[in-house]
Design brief:
The chain is α/β, with parallel strands linked by helices and 247 residues long. Helix content is 35%, strand content 24%. The chain folds into 2 domains: 2-206, Alpha-Beta Complex (Spore Coat Polysaccharide Biosynthesis Protein SpsA, Chain A); 207-247. Strands 1, 2, 3, 4, 5, 6, 7, 8, 9 and 10 form a 10-stranded mixed β-sheet that branches.
């Protein structure tokens, strides 16, 4: 089974398309765990309306608004019962054959993460052929050069690495992918566009100066790099991120 983790905060405008993209999957052995970070809009009612029709969808709520997707995702991981942990943000959309295509790639014992390319859409959902592609196979050393794994495309295999959780830190997804690949595994790309990533002005990562600080701290603290090495990889990451931003 795939356990799909979706943190939710005031996402009423996008939930119908996000949830429907899971329901329409050709691979049907999944559970969708939606963790509400104390939304103040109509998100809960919308989720519960889907639960009435599909028992594979589950709802949980944080005790307080955490302001970060890390806590809701960790609650979802803790509650999950599937072998494969997948992530889908509450404003993003999957292509219908995403799980089917990704499932096949886990047969390789070296592969702990499977991800895909994705397409950027604007806040209204308009598609403008803005495709983000990544290498076919990503090792730990390759990933140090920048996060090429889109969170809403990523799935990891608990049979190989157990359940692993997010740290409360900016770019928490990047930290987790590094921790997984540091164990000697690789991440494999399907080589196909299987998700749509919604670009929103209010996204948590929109502050570029703050993002630079987060990345530098990841290299210095989490990866325990020297100052010069951290500066080198931060520069490399900024170049790669700038190229992705321009698409």
């Amino acid at each position: 089974m795939f356990s799909i983790i979706t943190p939710v905060y005031n996402s009423e405008k996008f939930l119908y398309s996000t949830i429907n993209s899971v329901i329409s999957q050709t691979y049907t052995d999944w559970e969708l765990i939606m963790v509400d970070d104390c939304s103040t809009d109509d998100s809960r009612r919308i989720i519960e309306s889907f639960i009435e029709k599909d028992g594979r969808i589950k709802y949980y709520k944080t005790n307080y608004p955490s302001g970060s997707p890390a806590l809701p995702r960790n609650i979802g991981i803790e509650k999950s019962i599937g072998r494969f942990i997948a992530f889908l943000d509450s404003d993003d959309i999957w292509e219908s054959r995403k799980l089917e295509y990704q499932n096949n790639l886990f047969q390789d014992d070296r592969v702990a993460i499977v991800f895909s390319d994705y397409e950027k859409i604007d806040e209204a959902g308009l598609r403008k052929n803005r495709f983000i592609t990544a290498p076919q196979v990503v090792s730990y050393m390759e990933l140090l050069k920048g996060n090429v794994i889109g969170c809403s495309t990523c799935i990891y295999d608990t049979a190989k690495i157990g359940k692993m959780y997010f740290k409360k830190h900016g770019h928490e997804d990047y930290i987790l992918w590094l921790e997984i690949l540091r164990k000697g595994f690789v991440a494999k790309n399907t080589g196909t566009v299987l998700a749509q990533y919604r670009v929103r002005d209010s996204s948590i990562s929109s502050n570029k100066l703050k993002a630079i600080h987060w990345i530098f701290q990841i290299y210095r603290v989490n990866e325990k790099m020297s100052l010069l090495r951290a500066i080198y990889y931060t520069t490399f990451t900024l170049i790669r991120a700038s190229l992705k931003y321009l698409k």
